[in-house]
From TrEMBL:
<protein>
    <submittedName>
        <fullName>Transposase</fullName>
    </submittedName>
</protein>
Length: 38
């Protein structure tokens, strides 16, 4: 169970990091990233 939680958290962090990168490039896909994050 703990492993699954760690994987989920890692995935969320990766999504957040991707969102930051996209925002740095103009945020063209920011809304898409937010939708996936939700």
């Amino acid at each position: 169970i703990n492993a699954a939680i760690n994987i989920e958290r890692k995935g969320i962090l990766e999504l957040q990091a991707a969102g930051l990168v996209v925002s740095a490039h103009g945020g063209q896909r920011k809304s898409v990233t937010q939708t996936v994050a939700v």
